């Protein structure tokens, strides 16, 4: 009888959570097939800086804000970081906003999607999340703070209190890309305030990597004392050697073009160093300009 009740509880939990999920926002979602990613030989310095922050158990900030203009390569960097941290069992959850995809351009399903991934990454939280949903099936329609407290904070605290040493083994990184692509500016602010509220509790060892353009509403929110206190900011404009990274990327793309057009003879000297230098200069540090040389964008 108890096993049947437990099965019913689990199925009810899965059903309630299923209708609140946005699978397409995962870093490894099939709907994001062939997402933007970094060339293995580029962005090494900035990816290393992010990795050091994630791995620092004594970090003084629990939020890292990676910001830069359109085309600077934010999504590619976060995709690469997500893959690395997932392989190292350090990724707890990810959500990639997209202005042009209906379910990914608002915050309605953000935290429910994160909660689902937390349950997968940290199975010890599952019974406490199930219990919270059983107690109140309207949780997903309540404020972000209520969702976070009932479905993230409390389950994690309970799980850590019952599992010896669990807090030292938890995957800690929650990654949110394209916050500026959440079309509701009030929603952008609400997300940042809810996250800062969670981290202010100092009871869970989570950290958030958030990428966006530096739009006014987002900038102003990161300047609030309650958010600024928790945040390390990383500007892509200040990243070292973007021109060198772009040159490496361009040369790799031209090699791919040569190899994928075997019926068309290319000179060993094509493209010339002068042509590469011109493309690097015109890119002005922005990968979006250089990316048109990629075979992925051959239609352009």
Polypeptide structure, described:
The protein is an alpha/beta fold. The chain has 2 domains: about 1-240, P-loop containing nucleotide triphosphate hydrolases (Rossmann fold, 3-Layer(aba) Sandwich); about 240-295, no CATH class. The protein is about 50% helix and about 10% strand. It has a 5-stranded parallel sheet, sandwiched between helices. Strand 3 (about 175), helix 8 and strand 4 form a beta-alpha-beta unit. The longest helix is centred in the middle third of the chain and has 19 residues, at about 145-160. Mean pLDDT is about 85; it is low at about 1-5 and about 295-300. This is Nephrocystin 3-like N-terminal domain-containing protein. Pfam families: NPHP3_N (PF24883). InterPro entries: NPHP3-like_N (IPR056884), P-loop_NTPase (IPR027417). Keywords: Repeat.
Short descriptors:
50% helix; NPHP3-like_N; disordered C terminus; Nephrocystin 3-like N-terminal domain-containing protein; 2 domains; 300 residues; Rossmann fold; repeat; 13 helices
SSE blueprint:
Layout: H1 2-18, H2 44-55, E1 63-67, H3 74-87, E2 91-96, H4 110-121, H5 126-135, H6 144-162, H7 166-169, E3 173-177, H8 185-200, E4 207-212, H9 216-222, H10 225-228, E5 231-235, H11 242-260, H12 273-283, H13 287-290
Parallel strand pairs: 1-4, 1-5, 2-3, 3-4
